[in-house]
């Protein structure tokens, strides 16, 4: 059946009409985004970029990614509770990376004061590419603001529709149902219930110019179905009108906040002033449940990912579960330290010799920050003192490309050579030492032209997609 999809892509006579149908279907299914020009207004929206056709993905690797997700949830959760590990893993990074260092300071300060909330909510997305066509390799795990769990649901309807229009009813029925936002909302609701105050609300920490607002709104709608009330506030709002009472309850505009869900605050430029940093600290000190708490945010750094790939490290987190260790490790690509010393020196020499084989990654999120090819040599050769410690080096994953059409506002309809990245959403809730929820709640496929090394839908490179399992 995957061959059927490949044949359709070649049928250029039909593609223009299908693209028109697909764009309308996207609008009707709520696969929406605000435009750059009017990110503050609902008066001018467009479809979020997406592929005309779903992309064939082998069933076995898809299942492998689903199966390992609850273990990744446990791993992230266990790391976030291991202060000594985080401190050691991030020691070199925080010496040279200002952003990670500021996050770590908040972590240290709240630890000193004592953690005020024993309920932990983790919502993450583990992303993979295929090395060749069948070896699943993790690109990264996102522990803060993992997005597109909302819009992914709408795209199921779009691809089902397009396959039907194209006369492929049977293929259409093979597109998997998928609604990550419902699972994310279920976890938020569960955590909120454990917080205990019925009238308290969920605060979604947002930016004031969010193009991807409808993705967030999907989670809000799912929460409303569960009778969980949400408010949207920026750092500035919380700073101006939020405060902690004597019991460290977070109060804003007269409402008690049970849970803060961060959809902002993962990139340096999102902290516009010292005030925003003070606000992040206040949120962290509060009794509200934080999604993520600062330790879980730090667990999502590329440096922690690299340290985990060292021999023996996973075993520290799963001492009696060799099968789990094996399952997680099977998804690791080669990851290398650039810390100062002989090991780091060897890695630099290795990267300079074959830069095309690697990706150089700083501790940043959101796409567009990684360094590739000859640029790697330039950055490593020009790094002064211990500056190279801000990065890690990773094996470049070379997927087998496939053809598709990327539909994006004002872009011409041309066939592209494409690479895809599969994300699996994880959700867990812990109360004290007891995991009360640990689930895989859905998937996301993103596809980009192979002409781009880096990805990211929000960064304007990748587009939303669905896997077509074969
Ligand atoms: P970010 O936090 O910016 O999303 P990622 O690690 O996910 O950082 O990298 C961004 C993009 O760069 C990915 O979506 C992928 O397209 C590409 N990329 C990252 N790591 C690799 C790799 N090891 N091999 C090939 N491509 C990669
Ligand atoms: Mg990423």
What gap, in angstroms, lies between the N and C termini? 7 Å
Helix content: 40-55%
Q: Write down the Rg.
A: 22 Å
Counting helices, strands and paired strands, the structural category is alpha+beta
> What is the average per-residue confidence, as pLDDT, rounded to a whole number?
97
Query: Which blocks of ≥5 consecutive residues have pLDDT under 50?
Result: none
Shape: globular
Give the percentage of residues in beta strands. 15-25%
Number of strands: 21
List the topology elements.
Layout: H1 2-10, H2 12-28, E1 32-34, E2 45-47, E3 50-51, E4 55-57, H3 59-80, H4 83-96, H5 98-113, E5 119-131, E6 135-142, H6 151-165, H7 169-173, H8 180-195, E7 201-205, H9 213-225, E8 230-233, H10 235-241, E9 242-244, E10 250-252, E11 255-262, H11 274-285, E12 289-291, H12 294-299, H13 302-308, H14 313-317, H15 322-329, E13 335-336, H16 342-353, E14 358-362, E15 371-372, H17 374-382, E16 391-395, E17 402-407, E18 415-431, E19 434-449, E20 463-465, E21 467-469
Helix pairs in contact: 2-6, 4-5, 5-11, 8-9, 10-11
The structure holds adenosine-5'-diphosphate and magnesium ion (MG).
Overview of the molecule:
With 470 residues, this protein is α+β, with helices and mostly antiparallel strands. It folds into two domains: 2-333 and 406-469, no CATH class; 334-396, Glutathione synthase lid domain (Dna Ligase, domain 1, 2-Layer Sandwich), CATH 3.30.1490. It is 41% helix and 25% strand. 48% of the residues are buried.
